[in-house]
Amino acid sequence: MTKPKSSVSFTPDTKPPAPSPSPSADLPRKLYTHADPLLRRLRMRLPGAREPLENLEGEFRDAQVLVLYFGSGWGRSYSALKEFHADLHNAAEKYRHKLKVVYVSTDADLASYEVMTANRPWMSMEFSDGSDFLLPGTSATTASPPPQLVELARGEDFLTASDGDDDDDDNDDDDVSGQAYVRPYSRAYIAQRMGVLSTPTVVVYHIPTRKILSHNARKTLFRPTNLKETMAAWERGEGAGLKLKELYLNMRWTFVLAFLALVYALGIQAGLIDNILPVLIAKLGRGGLESALVQAPAHNVPLPNGPAVP
After folding, report:
1. CA nearest neighbour of 110 among 146, 157, 138
2. What is the DSSP letter of 118?
3. What is the pLDDT of residues 100-125, one digit of tens each?
4. C-beta atoms surrounding 119 within 10 Å
5. Dihedral, 70, 75, 78, 84 alpha carbons, nearest 10
6. How far apart are CA 89 and CA 103, in angstroms?
7. Nearest to 103 by CA among 127, 76, 81, 87
8. pTM score, two decimals?
9. Helix H segments across the chain?
10. Quick check: 183 and 155 in contact, CB under 8 A?
11. What string of DSSP letters covers 14-27?
């Protein structure tokens, strides 16, 4: 079965009205204080999307790996996606301190976001962030921002997809301690920055080295049989490559057919067997045609210059 995918689209020029110029003055410092340049830009909610995460350093104290799961409510009933959710659920609980899973909704409606975050062990990015995603059934030329986009979480000025990199002018490279306030990323902005074109997409980020290990990690890496080896590689700051066992299981019949074809070709080359494929194909072709003619119902066939012949 083809795995369900949903394309990610953005609306142009749908930025909400700018909030107060200094939102950091009314925000708890623990909300954005972190040395990591990516984590400090994220506004998240704790598992279940109930309470906002306001102690960033405390939550990520022992974290080594950040998994950004870009998803949507579309296709959630498919068996392949249910299996992946079960594997991701298991990974988030088994490595709850070292591995932090954050769901990034690409939906424009709050109901889909709530369905995808309810009773899940992973955190989620703030929904009310002004993300300029296209609503289902709209186009970039006709879309307008839905009402909820004008209400930004805590009044912060989130970077959105329509901002682009030129508007991300807050250079925090010199702030090693991560104390200074910088504009947070919206869901749409980080999806665009990570090159997310469809869902589900999994981005893996190594926190100690501040390096993206994968922009589109394979869902099979989260299976219980692969998880231990996957986590070991990610904790070392390495990408989890395709294992020989997994490659064999996915392509075993391709390998068998290729091997038989090689043996057949070598046998013909050595003169040990005759090349019977052309004769067999010709016979099958004639047999198929004759079978079709025998089984086909009779029709009156009109001739170019004469009456129909039964």
Report:
1. 146
2. T
3. 999 999 998 888 999 999 999 999 99
4. 8
5. 10
6. 12
7. 127
8. 0.70
9. 56-59, 79-94, 110-117, 187-193, 224-235, 244-269, 277-295
10. no
11. -PPPP--S-GGGGS
